Amino acid sequence: MYTTECVYSNDYSFSFPSELGRWSVCLINGFVRPAVPLFLIASAYLLIPLRTDTKTFFRKRFMRVVIPFVIWLFMYAVLPGLWGEFSNEEVKNNLSHIFINFIPRASHLWFIYMLLGIYLIMPVLSPWLERVSRREEEVFLGIWLFTTLFWHAHEIFGDVFGECWWNPYPLFYYVSGYVGYVVMAHYIRKYLDWSTKKTLYIALPCFLVGYLFCIGSFYTRSFTVEEVRQLELSWQTTSIAPVLMSFGAFMLIRKITCARARIYKAICDVSAMSYGMYLMHMLILPYVFGICNPVMSPPLAIFATAIITYVVCYIIAKLISLFKFGKYIVG
């Protein structure tokens, strides 16, 4: 599911050649804003509290996540040079830069850096979550929800609560950001065993309110702002609207059951390939979009690009996984 959402949410243009294009990006991309949060919530839901010692936990993450990540960092630096996208000089620059950060051609890999940071803190966070009371956990989540408003507060007030150029770690720094989704996942698992009816009454409105805010703000801002980072302010994944969407979506998804063995097996198979699909999809997606975009309307081009990229990435990941060394490439 996360791979599906990321394929969609990476497939957009801010040039907006038409009003249809603007609405297509707004509605489709707005709908999949919970992509990153849902992955974090699902991961933490399954991992927290940790059931292994710290050494075993990190060893598994290293084999499953870090090694394929490093391999694909090199691939994004080098492979486009083979078909002329990068000059030899650019390839050299890419190779020197990937030891510091991802290159623009692999911008989606920002997520892996963030994920590894979450993994680093999980062995510390897990014992704390096992000891605190429900009320104490709710206080943390309340403070965290308050920090999700800071994206908008910065527009009005600038730096807040001790932020300045010599202090990037202000008052609420350590209770903000993606770590809140980890705590949310633990809270849901431990305390929110709702009926289907209650889930629909609460989770569905949360998702819809967040979605409407995302698309409304994005559409309005698309006429007034000039930079992508300003345009995306309303649906940054640690801002309030995507938080509402993510909570609602996860609570709804939790109620879905799959009784058919074939469907369950297919889902498990795609899930096993999903990390490799995510790592490679930005090597393929731009070229698929370049084929679809000139001959299709914006919404059709987005959906066609997503589906084709998804299928191609799955096939490639599946073929790689058949080799003995495949797990080191696709996880």
From TrEMBL:
A Pfam family the protein falls into: Acyl_transf_3
Domain Acyltransferase: 10-317
Transmembrane segments: 31-50, 62-83, 109-127, 139-157, 169-188, 200-221, 233-254, 266-289, 295-317
One BP annotation, GO: enterobacterial common antigen biosynthetic process
Subcellular location field: Cell membrane
Keywords linked to the UniProt accession: Acyltransferase, Cell membrane, Membrane, Transferase, Transmembrane, Transmembrane helix
Lineage top rank: taxon: Bacteria
One of the record's GO cellular component terms: plasma membrane
GO MF terms, alphabetically ordered: O-acetyltransferase activity
Cited InterPro entries: Acyl_transf_3_dom
Membrane-related topology note: Multi-pass membrane protein
Family: Belongs to the acyltransferase 3 family.
Name by which UniProt lists this protein: Acyltransferase
Organism: Bacteroides cellulosilyticus
